[in-house]
Amino acid sequence: MSIKVIIAGFKGKMGQAAYKMVTEDPDLDLVALYDPFAPEEQVAGVQVFKSKEDLKGLTADVWVDFTTPAVAYENTRFALEQGYAPVVGTTGFTSEEITELTELSRAKSLGGLIAPNFALGAVLLMQFAAQAAKYFPNVEIIELHHDQKKDAPSGTAVKTAELISQVRTSQEQGAPDETESLAGARGANFDGMHIHSVRLPGLVAHQEVIFGSQGEGLTLRHDSYDRVSFMTGVNLAIKKVVEGSELVYGLEHLL
Ligand code: NAP
């Protein structure tokens, strides 16, 4: 039996890559598209919904979401309430929102995933960074994205910092008396480590995690050159969440 999928944000850069992946996989059945701003009524025979109200009652298994941080929480909540297992790549969730959505998924006995990064290499980078941070507590994160990205820092950078802070002894980095002559020069402060966000046309999604110690340095880097890099993870997630009974945060929980 094929898995019935809805794609929210299908006109966006990630939504288009997800559309291609879902329609090319014979095990997946695209049953609806959602975008409040789309002018078309249907795409290749698949209905385009402009309002979540109209989607109510539609039979589907999985809600794939690549929309915008402002609506990601309410979309994911809606999906769970309708009985659709969410596979969410949209970034910008707070940890309170993730906790709430996880509780709702348990109450509904539905699987789901919120993944700040679906690229397998990025998931590995986060794990390697957490490993290295045990020995190298001085670390800075530089995330680099295309200049249309709406939120900063990236969800991947925040998740990387969270994983590192679970193993790193909390400490303020840099000189105790350092000052910024230009506000923001030292980046965002997460538990004493600094995150820097670069936005440039031509980039897709990239991250460096730089560790420094006495007389040595270690740099980990991952590059998504093309949005196709995320689709192996999205495909895997769609097939896994239908068997799950709670929402998880991070693709590593489904690997
Ligand atoms: P994008 O090209 O701007 O696409 C977002 C799409 O969502 C647009 O078509 C937008 O329509 C639509 N949209 C806006 N408001 C909406 C609403 N209320 N409901 C449904 N759709 C709505 O952005 P993108 O590059 O595809 O990225 C989408 C999200 O995925 C971002 O949060 C990004 O950070 C994230 N992302 C995640 C991963 C990952 O691996 N997890 C990788 C890359 C990106 P309009 O253009 O008409 O506003």
UniProtKB/TrEMBL annotation:
Keywords: Amino-acid biosynthesis, Cytoplasm, Diaminopimelate biosynthesis, Lysine biosynthesis, NAD, NADP, Oxidoreductase. Coiled coil: none annotated. This is 4-hydroxy-tetrahydrodipicolinate reductase. It catalyses: (S)-2,3,4,5-tetrahydrodipicolinate + NAD(+) + H2O = (2S,4S)-4-hydroxy-2,3,4,5-tetrahydrodipicolinate + NADH + H(+); (S)-2,3,4,5-tetrahydrodipicolinate + NADP(+) + H2O = (2S,4S)-4-hydroxy-2,3,4,5-tetrahydrodipicolinate + NADPH + H(+). PANTHER family: 4-HYDROXY-TETRAHYDRODIPICOLINATE REDUCTASE 1, CHLOROPLASTIC-RELATED, DIHYDRODIPICOLINATE REDUCTASE. Residues 121-255 form the Dihydrodipicolinate reductase C-terminal domain. Pathway: Amino-acid biosynthesis; L-lysine biosynthesis via DAP pathway; (S)-tetrahydrodipicolinate from L-aspartate: step 4/4. Belongs to the DapB family. Signal peptide: none annotated. Its EC number is 1.17.1.8. NAD(+) binds at residues 9-14, 89-91, 115-118. It is found in: Cytoplasm. The lineage of its organism: Bacteria, Bacillati, Bacillota, Bacilli, Lactobacillales. Residues 3-118 form the Dihydrodipicolinate reductase N-terminal domain. Homotetramer.
